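Backbone shape codes:
===
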Amino acid sequence: MSPEKTSNIGVKGLLICQTNEICPIVTVAWNESFKDILKVKMSLNSTYQQYDIHKVILTDGTKTHSFNVNGPTENDYAFAAYRSRNSIMIPINLMADFSSSQNISMNILILAKIMDSTSL
């Protein structure tokens, strides 16, 4: 990847998840058009299911912010796994709202779609 493609990426990686939780892959990047907005992309991978991502809730236990996704969830099947991807846009000043927080939880509201071999 060229330096221009990665220079807007702020954070990329796995969140800290409980053993019974689906752990998303999350990328946070500056919005190319509006520098006061961050684009948060999430991907849920599963061997057995696709997910329909509806909403993302960020909370520190005191303050809560809820965001609808940007559009329909993208689903594909590759390397024997289902991948469900979507994104939200959040204002950069939200980070200031959570600046004194020790822990921030990210809750992704989904509907599971059970898949079988006839769905491939």
